[in-house]
Amino acid sequence: MSRGLLSAAWSLWRTSLRQDRRKAVTALVLVVAGAAAWPLVAIMLRVLFEAANAGRPVAASLAGVAVAVLLIAGLTLGHFAHIAYFELSELDVLHLHQELMDATNGSAGMAHFEQPEFADKVRILEEDVEQLRVGLQAVLTGVGLAVAMTLTTAVLASLHPLLLLLPLVAVPPLLAGRWAERMVDRSREASAESTRRALGLFRLATHAASGKELRVFGLEQEVRRRHGLFWQDATRRLWRTQAVASLVRMLGQLAFAGGYIAAVLLILRDAVAGRRGVGDVILVITIAAQVNQQVAAAVGVLQDLQRLRSVYQRLDEVHGLVRAGERADRPGALPAGPGDPTGPAGSAAPAPVRLRHGIRLVGVELRYPGGEQPVLAGLDLHLPAGATVAIVGDNGAGKTTLVKLVCGLLRPTAGRVLVDGVDLTDLSLPGWRARIAAGFQDFVRLELPARRTVGVGDLPRLDDEPAVRAALGRAGADDLVGQLEAGLDTPLGREYADGAELSGGQWQKLALGRAFMRDDPLLVVLDEPAAALDAEAEHAMFERYRLQAARVAAATGAVSVFVSHRFSTVQLADLIVVLADGRVAELGCHADLIAADGLYAEMFELQARAYR
Predict the structure, then answer these.
(1) CATH superfamily of 3-325
(2) pTM of the predicted model over 0.85
(3) Residue 358: is its pLDDT beyond 90?
(4) What does CATH list as the number for 352-435+522-611?
(5) Is the distance from CB of 201 to CB of 226 less than 8 angstroms?
(6) Cα dihedral sign, 327-332-335-336
(7) Which ranges form a coiled coil (predicted)?
(8) For 507-529, how does the pLDDT look when each residue is reduced to its tens digit (9 = 90+)?
(9) Sequence spans of domains, the chain
(10) Distance CA 436, CA 444 (A)
(11) Which SS3 state, helix, strand or coil, does residue 397 take?
(12) In 409-520, which ranges are E strands?
């Protein structure tokens, strides 16, 4: 086994020891004892036949009892070991799930989520993490095989020096198995994109939320067709590779079969010549058969360990892509320190208690990994403290990207984002985000009891019913509680057998309530928060939003940022930012922008005309 295989096996063994040392050691002892029993069976069979042939019944009987005991040990100890390590395997899977979650969320920014390579690695890891269920078994079996093969080699050496070559004949199938597994692994990497796209289309075709559009637009057949094409592409790649890999493995096994036959013939020749007894013939046949089984088991263990190594390698690659995304977020940024993802321990400044000047973007450029054109380029913008700011622009103008930047979810590839004159990269991001209240268009439908679905917006007050009701009131969702069977205690969503099913608008109201949970934010962000609401409901919501903005502006100098396509609400903002092609095209209040008769006036007139 290579250093990589041993490293992966050792990593999993250490994880298992941390989970439950007693069960891990018990499983190891039982597996090793069970594996060692089989070579001892062959030795005792030799003793049994030699004693019987020599007319020594007592010795033959004792040898027979020993054979029976060893057979029972070989057949049962592995089963008892399985009982010991089964739970450990489950815990190891949970541990790696946690590691994957930690790796995925190990960056202060989100640039790595924009990389297709990251998505492919995570998708394969989600499948391969189940390998840990057999990974521990492979590690334990590998140790047991090492012990058994050592005993087997000693027995072969005692029979004939040439038989020491028999384990060497095991090398071709081992190398062939390793080569075949690498071929399969490379093929899985190559087919990852097609598999990911096929799975995405499968989820699209089976999800209730997308069912309406698929049927209305007659897309069912097209989705199935595309799913079939992607799946056939992935399957064709994998099938070809599996066929070649099976042929390689078969050739390796044939090489060993030739060595096995030669070993048996060698001892038979000596027996015929009178130089060997019947016990030696029985021993070599039994031991050679065991070597064959050991080789087959070793090939299987090797394949399992190679997959295990791939799991740890891909986990390292995910960590690497996250770090690369972090560097892309902010070239030259210092590595994260313990407890704070923004820089070395102790270097991050706390978020201000109150905003006095506001948030300023200076020469900001943002380019997603692999993107040919920047999403934002040369952007200079001041969001004054206490102001209500509306951001408008066509799709793709960079509105959501701008919101992510001021929230610290992305870092500019050039330029700076300043909070009261302090670069956002020098602030404690956890501290800054603790002072943000946000609602997004692609909000999360948290399938929790209703109280907690809203309460997570301010985690320390997760179950604070008065705070939750106040937040729902600010979101205009007071009536929603009365519509739920058990009020705020009602479980939501399909994760619960008795969970309440909500409409899109009801889910959005809960998300808005979540956004209004924090009492003292420095930044309030609503990014298309009313997409599921009608125009009247959105206008009423924005009026409440203005009251909330005025309240927090007086208390903390907070900047309130609102992204919307509806100009009836946008015109009420203190400052309107018009984005076009990743730049600030216009800036001002509604009256000034209308008077300027530019892009904003054109967009406003187009929308107003639709209501006339």
Answers:
(1) ABC transporter type 1, transmembrane domain (1.20.1560.10)
(2) no
(3) yes
(4) 3.40.50.300
(5) yes
(6) negative
(7) none
(8) 888 988 998 899 889 999 988 76
(9) 3-325, 352-435+522-611, 442-519
(10) 17
(11) coil
(12) 414-419, 422-423, 436-440
